[in-house]
Amino acid sequence: MTTAAPPGSAPGTLVKQPGSAAPTVEVIRYGPDACEDVPAAPPAELRAGIGALPVTWINVSGLGDLDLLRGYGKAFGLHRLSLADVVNLHQRPKAEVYEGYLFIVTRMPRGGVGPETEQITLVLGENYVLTFQERPGDCFEPVRQRLRRKRGRIRDAGADYLAYALLDAVIDGYYPVLEACGERLARLEDEIIAAPSRAAITDVHDLKHDLLMLRRAIWPQRELVNALLREHAELISATTQVYLRDCYDHAVQLMDVVETYREIASALVDVYLSSVSARLNEVMKVLTIIATIFIPLGFIASVYGMNFDAKSSPWNMPELGWRYGYPFALALMLAVAVGLMVYFARRGWLGDGRRRRRRRRRRAS
Fold it and tell me: In 159, 206, 259, 266, which residue has its Cα 20 to 30 A from 199's Cα atom?
């Protein structure tokens, strides 16, 4: 849970969030011919060292030191509203153009699994990228490896391409999450069809909640990338915008998958209700058949249980004085029960009557 500034506070007020991690700083400088990890230093020194190589990436993990954040804001000329958005962790993904830099807020899947996300803030300058994240641990390791091993064109491009690569890594981080949701959907579908239970429908509702949270995180990501393409910011080159279009396609694809999974999850609720209704109908059918069979048996037993005196009239239950009267009554009940069972079977009321009728038609043909 995040803590916002008190109502009526001055714009740009910084509020430390409960449980914020102590910051760790990672600095990478690179160019076409070199890539080096630079030891952490005060913000002013890092700002002065920008330009030694074409691009500098400064990653701050943890927002527990507001003085350090103010130092970065002063050294890099960040607007106070930008710094407030860095520490206010309930921000919606967005892109804003300030004088001298481009401010981007995005949300990354936390730990690579589950619907929970954490806020990532990118500041794109002319030859540097600043990233601020809630805590250590991110999905940027492939980008670091591409920088250190000179894979692809990332070291030959500028800071705008690095910002694109980081944003693309965040968006691609949702694919494993959605894949896990798809596996949950498949398992729940099999479970609901085979043996619907309250636990299964509870899991479906939990999954729908997770998908809703993912939708709230992914939908603004699409709008964010679309805004970067639409506004044609000066800090993003035409070459990088081509790659941003591919990033936008990924965001659209993620949204399509989320919407599809939400529809499937909603359909699973209907499948559950249909399965429960079908099972109830089967139970009611069995109980009805049993009751129908015992109705004539109860009638026969009640007739023979009226204890008429056979001596008073030959029509008063002559079977009462018959040696085989009792076996006859039981045999009559058994015959009635068997006759009813045969009749129900021929009508298709026992088991899958349609299948039996199809077999008869095949035999007849």
Answer: 259
